[in-house]
Amino acid sequence: MCLTSNEQTHPHFRGNIVSHPFKKMVDFRLPVCINTDNRLMSNTTMTKELIIATNTFNLSPSQTRRIVLQGFKSAFFPGAPKEKKAYLALVEEYYDRIEQEFKNETNK
Q1: Which phi and psi angles does 24 have, rounded to 5°?
Q2: Using CA atoms, how far apart are residues 6 and 70, in angstroms rounded to an integer?
Q3: With bands split at pLDDT 50, 70 and 90, how would you rate the model's confidence at 38?
Q4: For the whole model, what pTM was predicted?
Q5: Which of 24, 31, 87 is nearest to 59 (CA)?
């Protein structure tokens, strides 16, 4: 889901992205993920979209983690299912390592 694109293309959300059902979807643990739709037309990046989602909907670190990992789980993978499973394990391990490094850095 690209919140920027949704805000640009749906009159109800213009200037009112907080009314988007994204948070309800997250709270109900639906398999949602963030994307950029058309990065150039919407003038956005994955970083911007994650910041918008996190700040607008006050996402917890665990919710943000679930959303990011869901994006990887939902993405096309050119290999066999076993290879994708191994890749997802590496992504999850990397995410957790970066998150821990950030926590360590902010606790100094």
Answers
A1: -65, -40
A2: 19
A3: confident
A4: 0.88
A5: 24
- 8 A C-beta contact, residue 33 and residue 22: no
Confidence check: pLDDT of 42 > 80: yes
Cβ burial of 50 (10 Å; 0-12, 13-18, 19+) is middle
Average model confidence (pLDDT) across the chain: 94
* Spans of all domains in the chain: 1-60
3: its two tokens = 């919140």
CB atoms within 10 A of CB 13: 19
b (16+ CB within 10 A) / e for 70-90: ebbbeeeeeeeeeebeeeeee
Tell me the average pLDDT across 17-45. 93
Task: Give the Cα separation of 30 and 47 in Å (integer).
Answer: 21
